[in-house]
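@channel anyone free to eyeball this complex?
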Amino acid sequence: MASLFSPPADRWIRISPKYVVVRVLGAAIANLLFWVPVSLAWAWVFDPHGGDLSGFPALVRYGSLVQWLPAYVGAVWFVWRVYRAGRYARSWRYAERGEDLCITRGLWYKTLTVVPYGRLQIAKVDAGPLDRLLGLATVTLVTASAHSNASIPGLPAAEAERLRDRLIEVGDTLGSGL
Amino acid sequence: MTSPYGPQQQPGPPPLEPRPAVTKVEERAHPLTPLVRGWVAVVTIAWALLQERLQNRHDGTDRLPWWVFVAVIGGVAALGLVAGFISWRFTKFIADETELRVESGWISRQSRRISYTRLQSVDVMQPLAPRLLGLAEVRIDAGAHDSTKLRYLSRRRAYELRDFLMLRAHGAQVSVDAAKVQTSDPLFIDVGRTDKVVVTVSPHELLLGALVSHDLLSLLLGFAVPIGVAWAVTAYAGGRAAEALPVFALAGGVPLVISIGQYFARRVMAQFNFTLAETQAGLRITRGLTNLTSQTVPVRRIQSIRINQPLFWRPLGRYRVDLEVLGLGEATHNESTSKVSTLLLPIGSKAQVDAALSAVWPGLRLDAIGYVQSPRRAKVLDPLSYSWNAHGLDDDVVVTRRGWLNRLTSIVPHARLQSVAAHQGPLERLLGLANVTFHTTGLLHTHAAIHIDVDRARTLVYAEADRAMTSRDAELLG
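replying in thread with the prediction:
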């Protein structure tokens, strides 16, 4: 049975396996910037020794559990992100099919986007500091619709540039954008 | 920024003989303009001061003699007049066979020249005060910038200019005088001699639509519930409910009356005399009781059409139709008085909807489309809208239906599709279903065939992507 997300032509092209590293490091940075300050602030507010909690119900006085709750949540979230990073990175695939580009992604919520080359207005390549460290880049296809939202992360930089140039060249020969 | 005083460089092949030095006809807005523009400021200030006075504040303002207020209002009025006069004196525009140029500004001067072929729409607005003096504002939309406003011209000149610009925008090489022949300047509706009226909406239809709507119900409930609860609490606690009742009724009643008034102004007065007409330069929508608005929608810029049927309109057999127009970014589905609206029909019967649709896309055959429903297993996910959810397509358009409280029918021409996507969540995967969304340039509307069979979804996504590239809108436009 050809499932909805099976390849349109002969096969899907996977993105670079190094994208896993970007995901893991990204999760670590998100943890540092969001969960660490939040947990520390929470722990400071709910400090069972310093703050006066006599007015709170008994549960709150089981100090450490409530005090470090956001830290646990953050840690679980981080472990989950790292655990899923490999599979999430592998879920990104793309393929060229005749006159359009197909992109699929997602684990629980799967999406398949098909962008006809003729509708392409801009093809751009972005590379953040993490990407550059690993020699990766993201290709984004911009059409006249903001809903299109078609991008492929974790491509090797050279491949990203080749894809960008190819998309624009094919797009130029085909139809108008609007 | 090119200097307006430099030599005029004509693009394209050079003319065979040097153009004779035609003296450009520079026009100004109507001399009454400063009066009208100052008027609004004067009323605002007067209203604010009056309120201050009436509120009986004991902060010293109540001891000031009345002439101070008159002096303040008079001063503001004089300032407004002077500012209005300066702005009027320094604003000029030129609209002739070769160019459209608007020059404005006193301290920092601005000159914009607009390409005729890139004009998106030209609207004529007549708010109450200018309208009483026979004046109108011309609003020219081009590019992504805010529109260029010429205010105020005499009504006749405004319509003339609009007709001329729209004809030029459609590539007709008309002279200024030739365009004038077609113009007429009726007071209440804007229908020229060569225009064909497609649909008119009568006031009692508008009133019906406004009365029978979710919006009014939620407005009433929004007031009634908090007041009722507050009253009940007071009655329960104090036991003097009879005395408390008038207080609550007054506290809630005044804002309620104001809100309802605004609601009816928006839904009935702004849409009064709604007329949809076919003109040589596109569809023309004229509406309004006190503020007359006349906008011209270029048919080629319409990206999709959506037919709405709110729950309460179902037994009445009434529909609302709105458009997605390229370039009208700020225009939402609002029904406000001054902004450009994307309503094609505020309320209408099936026959009126069909007439409006065929005015936009004469080639559209909505009834001939065979709709495909979702498989029965999708009933779990949409118990209420299952019977309505469907999708269908023909050679020119893809049509999707969904919604329960508000039944939607989205019509997207294949030629206007930007991209296509399929989505599947965990629950849908379990049931073997998927959603297919069709992306157009509009941000507000999502066009989706929801909860359809996965195999069908796969076929649909790829087939639509192909059709997007192969289809042409020539057939639809008739």
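from a first look: The longest helix of chain B spans residues 241-269.
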